[in-house]
Structures are given as C-alpha cells and as structure tokens.
UniProtKB/TrEMBL annotation:
One of its GO terms (biological process) is protein localization to membrane. This is Transmembrane 9 superfamily member. Belongs to the nonaspanin (TM9SF) (TC 9.A.2) family. It is found in: Endosome membrane; Golgi apparatus membrane. It comes from Ficus carica (Common fig).
Amino acid sequence: MAKTTTFSLPLFASLLLLFCFFDHVRSDHRYHDGDSVPLYANKVGPFQNPSETYRYFDLPFCSPDGVKEKKEALGEVLNGDRLVNAPYKLEFRKDKESKVACKSKLKKEEVARFRSAVNKDYYFQMYYDDLPVWGFIGKVDKEGKEPSEYKYYLYKHIHFEIFYNKDRVIEINVRTDPKALVDLTEDKEVEVKFLYTVTWKETKTPYEKRMDKYSQSSSLPHHLEIHWFSIINSCVTVLLLTGFLATILMRNVDEFSFFYDERYAHDEESAEDEEETGWKYIHGDVFRYPPYKSLFAAALGSGTQLFTLTVFIFLLALVGVFYPYNRGALFTALVVIYALTSGIAGYTAASFYCQLEGTNWVRNLLLTGCLFCGPLFLTFCFLNTVAIAYTATAALPFGTIVVIVLIWMLVTSPLLVLGGIAGKNSKAEFQAPCRTTKYPREIPSLPWYRGVIPQMAMAGFLPFSAIYIELYYIFASVWGHRIYTIYSILFIVFIILLIVTAFITVALTYFQLAAEDHEWWWRSFLCGGSTGIFIYAYCLYYYNARSDMSGFMQTSFFFGYMACICYGFFLMLGTVGFRAALLFVRHIYRSIKCE
C-alpha cells in the first residue's frame, strides 16, 4: 500500500503540473461595438537593460481608480510581467480624439524621477487584447547643447491606431505626439494632463495571422542569407571532420588483424623485450573505470536530462507553441519539462554508476539532483536579492518561490528517486570488449599540447565556430528586444552542433589513445563540454562590443544566468561527447582479439 502511495504522489503532481501548462483559458477575442477591450500596462525600464524593468506605476503616472493586477501564470511571473489595468479606455471600434485620461500635479521629487527615467531612455510596454505595444516615455533634447544645457521632456499625448477585421482586433500601433511635451528640466511642480487619441481602421488580415508582423523581422531575406551562410559554413566543418574520421577508421581497418590470439601467448620475458606503441597496446587499461565515478555518473545523468529538455523545447517551438509575445510560455515549458524529466537523470546516473560497480547509489542520486540545480539555486538567490534591492519586476514574489519549491519537492525529487531506483534495479553490466588488467599501465610523458586544457581549447573551438553566427541573434533576442522565430534553422544548427561535438571528441580521443594515454573518460567529457566555456567567453565579447547594457543589476543578471546556461551546455555537450567517444572506443576495441 505504501508503494502505491509513493508512486501516486509524483504522478498526481505531474498531472497537475501538466494541467497548469496546457490550461490556457483565453477568451475567443470577439467583441461587439463599444465593448471594453482589455488594455494592461506591464512595465517600464531602460531600453538598453532588458532585465532591469519596473512596474508601470513605479513612475508617477496618474493611475485609474482601483488599480487591479491581472492574475498571471507562472511563466509570466518568471518573465518579469506585472500587468495592471491601464489608465486608457479603448472600447472596440470607438474613435476618440484628445481624450483626457487623467490630470496630475507632479511634485519636485516626481519630476526628478521622470527626468531620470527619460535620461535613461525608459520605455513602456502594454498589452491590448494580448497584442504588445510599447513606446518611449519622453525624450532628451541634446542638439547643439552642452550636457548641462540638455532639455528633458515627457510625452503626454499617446495615439493608438488599431486595426480590426469584423469583430476581432488584428493590430495595434502606438506613437507619441512630438509636439505635446512637458518640460521636466527644472525641479519644480508641474501640472500634466495626459491625453490619448484612438483611431480604428479596418483590415483584411485574418485573425490567425495577426502575430505574423512580429516574426517578419527575423525572416527578412538578408537575415535568412546570414543564417543559411552559417549553416553552410557548419556543414563544411562537418564534412571535413567526417572525412577525417573516415580516414582514421579506414587506415586502421587492415591493422586490426595485427592483434591475434597468438600474440598474447608469448611469455612475459618476450613481452618485456618488445617495445609496444599505439592505441592497440593499452587494451588492458582503456576500460578501467574513471576516478570520481559517482560525480562522473551524476554529470552524465544531468547532461542527459538537459539534452532531453532541449529536444522537447525544440519540438514545442517547431509546432508553434512559442509564437512571439506568448507571455511566459518558454519559462513555463522549461520549469514543467525539467521537473518531468528528472526521472531520466536519476535513471541514467544510477544505472551507469552501478555499471561502474559503485555501491553508494543514494549519495550518487543526491549528487545528481544537486549538480545542476545547486549552482542554479545559489545564482537565483543572489540575483533575486539584487532584484529585490532594485524593486525590479525580476524579483519573484514569495508565492511564486513557494510554487517552485513545491514543484521541486512534489515532482522533481520523487521522479528523480523513482528513476534512480529503476536504474539501480536495471542490473545492466558495462559492456567492455577487452578485459581490464590488474595494474594500470604507465602513461608516457606527453607534450604540452596533449594536456587537458589545450585539448579542451581545440575541442571547443570547432563546435563554437559552427554556431557563433547564430549566437548573436539568440543573444539579441534573449538580452535585447529582437524577436527570434526561425526555430527550424536553429534546430538545424543544434543538430550540427551535436555532430561536430561528437566528431571532434572522437578524433581527440583517438589521438589520446594513440599516444598510449588510457585516461580518456573524463577527457572526452571535458572536451565535449568545452563549447560551453567558449559560449561564456562570447558573453564577455557580446556585453562589451555588441550591447549597451550597463549597471550592476543588468550586469549581474547577464553574467549570472549566462553562467548557468553555459554550465548546462557544458553538461549536455559533455554527455554527447562522452557517449560518442564510448561508442567509438568500443567499436575499435571490439574489432581486435584480446583475451
């Protein structure tokens, strides 16, 4: 009975989690003339710092009576969305001309806050019928003036241009009136009358295509040419590596017969007199288990889970789940899928650990659960504290943190344990074609470029060169305001990344074995994962040369969360590299006769 209860708890929690993910209760977005269409003010913040956003009414805009916050899903909160009803009333197909939204008398302190926001290029973001709109709150007049003479202005008149098709909203554009300005240069009280104009126009664009305009920017011909150039460049790299590996295999096929049973029938004396060199001569050590095998198995388990998570995210992206401005869908998917795939990590780690003749599988399971979540949790604690100090919307509310902890306790951990138990009971044995000798063979002294660090540098450079062009567009989307929607090309680049990582790891493993260095287990994992280090190095370049990000909060968020992402890439690609190297090593040693 207890066993049934243990199983039903994570199962029930998993079903509840899936319900939360797929239950998007939305209206049909149909309206009659004069119906109230929801307009929500979301956030404001410096344009160059996408993570540094604040609640809309943190600036002293005059707020409507009874400001109500929209109930948000988990992903929306993680995305930093904090929607409240806006002070503008935009009824369906009802034009308005210079309508007064509200009047406000700004105090000196409020004028100073607006002036500081205008100086930092603050923008606002709203959602009208789930369509995003944004604009700047003001401007700085710098033309022909010294910094001390700059003029600061607040926009007070907003023009809404809305397109409709029958009974549905299709498109909305927002512009500010450059002539309707409020001077904020001096610290004095200012009276402001916020105005708005609404113009409705008919369009033939169907409702199903109303989001297309947000994805067109990433599909322009010159952008696609760059993406395809990146893919062609990567394919050339794959072809070169394929030819290189094929040459290695073909060159050694005829040499496999060099090892036959009689060779090992010689007595010990004749073996000592014979000088042996090459990968064939370390057959008795190549399958010797690596040191720190519990950590190694945990890394493989975490890497396998992250690989599965990435594949599922790509599948959802390819079927159109992550359309532009589907608020929080990506974050929701990441949380749900990571929780549901934790059983894969537990099974892989425990199964491989037991294959390596490990005994303390419980400790291995705890290590697997903390290997990626531990650094991520510590990073989150620090960055959330920074966001709280800045009163930014990136600071998660206490209730959201409780929900994430409950997901981890009721779904992630139980599935991890169940996977670990299944892996432990699988009783699979490690398939080694050659018997391991009792005493390890001494590794000859090797030149410096065969060390771990130079090999990791060589292994990480080629996969990184295959993706670095695509990285810019991803960074500009995640850490900027560009929209990325060509997931098919991104998926092709991801496949190429996996192939290049596997091939270069196999090649370096072969060279390592040819030098009679049999400690290839950790080396193959580190070489495969080294691309993550290159990606983090690219972060330094992007921050300094390709972005205008500044400030402690934005800097800490960028480098903090990118460190976690690159660490995840390290684990995932390290797993891919090791699995490819293991297949290769088993193949070549299975082709020789060794007793």
